[in-house]
Design goal:
about 300 residues, alpha/beta, 7-stranded mixed beta sheet, 6-stranded parallel beta sheet, 10 helices
Length: about 300
């Protein structure tokens, strides 16, 4: 089978297609024939060596997958050959999803609903779980709260907007003006063009900030949090604020460290099936163009998600 690997850290050109033996599922695992693979910023960060989750190369990046169960290993009764599934595999250990086939723990996957296409299913897990675990698991957003989401049109951000709306929040999003119409369609209530306006003046007091940018955005965001509010950042980002600094302001600072969770995925899929959550796909590329996908994701101009297909 084909797999995308790299023998050194570097720019997207280090990614190469190789032929390797197809893996066999061990106890508690299934072998998935890959239908689509979600591409995420963490993939590019690990490839470049900025976020050394997997140690030194060689390794295969990728954690999002949707596909069809090919075979089941010993002890697996929940899934059978032919089942369509999706999941976030093994994160933060190696998921190895940039390949034609991948093994997965039966505890990390869930059946794909018929109404969700394979590309959308592959794009959902890591980004959707990040947003869900940040907003629901950590911030516990409630109806009527004001939630500020930075980089609202990106892979995590556009899902976070919809999750917050589904929970009854008033959603404020920062994004370029060109993406405001897209975000309004998703339900965003207040939009701020970060290139021409100061969000601290436009957003008003907020209960929750989901910061997908970091740096000075975190410190500035803390100034408009209501007392007792929470700023949730993405793990690995420079949040621009310390927990002590946040405590002095009477707010809470924390970071989301996404983990596989079929239970949380089931909640996301329930929103999909009720029409409250839609995964937007910006680009679909063949597996052989993984390097191009990484160029696109690193440019930080993507609306929604990028997906690879074998």
């Amino acid at each position: 089978m084909r797999s995308v690997t790299q023998s050194a850290f570097g720019d997207p050109s280090v990614l190469e297609i190789v032929t390797v033996d197809r893996p066999s599922p061990g106890p508690g695992e299934v072998l998935i024939k890959v239908g689509a693979i979600g591409v995420n910023p963490v993939d590019a960060a690990v490839r470049a060596g900025y976020y050394p989750l997997l140690g030194d190369p060689p390794f295969t990046v990728g954690w999002d997958v949707a596909g069809v169960v090919e075979t089941s290993g010993p002890g697996v009764s929940a899934f059978a050959p032919g089942d369509e599934v999706l999941g976030l595999l093994a994160f933060p250990a190696a998921g190895n999803t940039y390949a034609d086939y991948v093994t997965a723990s039966a505890n990390e996957i869930i059946r794909k609903p018929a109404g969700l296409d394979t590309e959308e299913a592959a794009a959902l897990p890591l980004a959707g779980l990040t947003a869900w675990q940040a907003l629901v698991g950590i911030a516990r957003i409630a109806p009527g709260q004001r939630v500020l989401i930075h980089a609202a049109a990106g892979g995590v951000g556009h899902l976070a907007v919809q999750i917050a709306k589904a929970r009854g929040a008033h959603v404020v999003g920062t994004a370029s003006a060109a993406k405001h119409a897209f975000l309004r369609e998703l339900g965003a209530d207040t939009l701020v063009d970060y290139s021409s306006a100061d969000f601290t003046q436009e957003a008003g007091p907020v209960d929750v900030v989901f910061d997908l940018i970091g740096g000075e955005y975190g410190e500035r965001s803390a100034t408009i949090l209501k007392p007792g509010g929470v700023l949730v950042g993405a793990l690995g980002a420079n949040l621009g604020l310390t927990p002590e600094g946040a405590a002095e302001r009477g707010v809470r600072l924390t970071a989301v460290s996404v983990r596989p969770s079929p239970a949380d995925l089931a909640q996301l899929l329930a929103l999909v099936e009720s029409g409250q959550l839609k995964v937007h796909i910006d680009h679909v590329l063949p597996l052989a163009e993984a390097a191009k996908a990484h160029e696109l994701i690193s440019a930080r101009r993507t609306t929604g998600k990028i997906v690879l297909i074998p």
